[in-house]
From TrEMBL, chain A:
In the presence of PdxS, forms a dodecamer of heterodimers. Only shows activity in the heterodimer. It comes from Mesobacillus campisalis. The gene is pdxT. It comes from the Bacteria. The keyword Hydrolase applies. Keywords: Glutamine amidotransferase, Hydrolase, Lyase, Pyridoxal phosphate, Transferase. Pathway: Cofactor biosynthesis; pyridoxal 5'-phosphate biosynthesis. L-glutamine binds at G46, E47, S48, R105, I133, R134. Transmembrane segments: none annotated. This is Pyridoxal 5'-phosphate synthase subunit PdxT. It catalyses: L-glutamine + H2O = L-glutamate + NH4(+); aldehydo-D-ribose 5-phosphate + D-glyceraldehyde 3-phosphate + L-glutamine = pyridoxal 5'-phosphate + L-glutamate + phosphate + 3 H2O + H(+). Belongs to the glutaminase PdxT/SNO family. One of its GO terms (molecular function) is transferase activity.
Automatic annotation (TrEMBL), chain B:
The lineage of its organism: Bacteria, Bacillati, Bacillota, Bacilli, Bacillales. The keyword Lyase applies. Belongs to the PdxS/SNZ family. It comes from Mesobacillus campisalis. D-ribose 5-phosphate binds at D23, G152, G213, G234, S235. This is Pyridoxal 5'-phosphate synthase subunit PdxS. GO terms for biological process: amino acid metabolic process; pyridoxal phosphate biosynthetic process; pyridoxine biosynthetic process. The gene is pdxS. Pathway: Cofactor biosynthesis; pyridoxal 5'-phosphate biosynthesis. NCBIfam families: PRK04180.1, pyridoxal 5'-phosphate synthase lyase subunit PdxS. InterPro entries: Aldolase_TIM, PdxS/SNZ, PdxS/SNZ_N, RibuloseP-bd_barrel. It comes from the Bacteria. Residues 6-211 form the PdxS/SNZ N-terminal domain. Its EC number is 4.3.3.6. The active site is at K80. GO terms for molecular function: pyridoxal 5'-phosphate synthase (glutamine hydrolysing) activity.
Amino acid sequence: MKIGVLGLQGAVREHIRSIEACGAEAVTVKWPEELDALDGLIIPGGESTTMRKLIDKYNFMPSLKQFAAEGKPMFGTCAGLILLAKQVVGYEEPHIGVMDVKVERNSFGRQRESFEADLDINGVADNFSAVFIRAPHIVEAGENVEVLAKCNGRIVAAREGQFLGCSFHPELTDDHRLTAYFVKMAAEAKEKPAAV
Amino acid sequence: MRTGTDRVKRGMAEMQKGGVIMDVINAEQAKIAEEAGAVAVMALERVPSDIRATGGVARMADPHIVEEVMGAVSIPVMAKARIGHIVEARVLEAMGVDYIDESEVLTPADEEFHLLKSEYTVPFVCGCRDLGEAARRIGEGAAMLRTKGEPGTGNIVEAVRHIRKVNAQVRKVVGMDEAELMTEAKLLGASFELLLEIKKLGRLPVVNFAAGGVATPADAALMMQLGADGVFVGSGIFKSDNPAKFARAIVEATTHYQDYKLIAELSKGLGTPMKGLEIASIAPEARMQDRGW
């Protein structure tokens, strides 16, 4: 099982460590052609505006969309969730725009409002220590989206088929249960490739 | 819900890794920086080279400038407080600044004591020249470090000296027998517990950027190659001929710091970088890196 982490900017090292702790091979992805060999892709936390500039600069967008179209699993944490979402509040165009959710950036406030909370993530983990940093949240989820966790009534983790997204940073803790869940998604998708 | 925890404060810096934090003095510059792909901006009244040129006491920026910058961009906004100036730091925290730099670029308010940064909800970044300084700042609660370099010079030599020193000392600690750590702690002026943590982790427990002298894309890439987690660019961008182009080139060189063909491409036709300063030409009392301890 080979899982990539989009390595343009952000908490790349932490995701790599988490993937390896789950027994899968981890690869840092800096160029579009490196996506071909992967069974799944994690888009890490970082600054979504910076990542988007670099995605455009290196013509990553067609390859990322193709990756999604092939049915390969993608997991976005924080900035990664913003990049996957089909709609972003206050923006006319989405970024990659593949997961049927509408997200709002920095919706819990600025850094001083950043927080930790213990969450139950449906079917994944109870008592998961979640770190929210200038975090977004899912304002609306499409009908095929399964809500996995809420915090203060706001959706903070969800899955739609091959796509997994969360507002918080599982990579900042030693709790690898959510990463393990994603690695399992990638393993299942590899066994039963979706029709292209 | 727990705010202001070490994890939340240090985690914020983790999200900045591989990125460039740019000094800006108004909303217009902040927008140029964001557009170029900066991961954060540092709101200031004057960039370090101007502070050096004009002299006098350098203080926290006018809150109006900070507010204007916060309103102009969606990326995090940092601001500088004087070393040991409790009230400047509290004012910036109250304004909702995302990160405070307790900075030697400003004139120190306290020559003996740094801020007790663990008491604040807002995270702090501090400068360091060696592992002892780094460890003392972490001990006070800094959630992020930056090597000091010599700000406002456009000369990378001090930044290189400091990042090499810190990383060599980290490697030394990691390789030491645990029985040797207390003596090392005494020599460095660092806490034993922190050195033990560094030994276990194999690295510093917080993100460490490079600062103080980055003037070209190649300088930024050099700092990354020497093991910095990202770079601060102060005077380098808005003192160059074409700031927007310059800023984009520095961002790209930081991302792809080992891609020399790419760095060659993006270094072409950038115009004149900021005029640099020879370190030996700076009077000892004007060396910013010697502020703080």
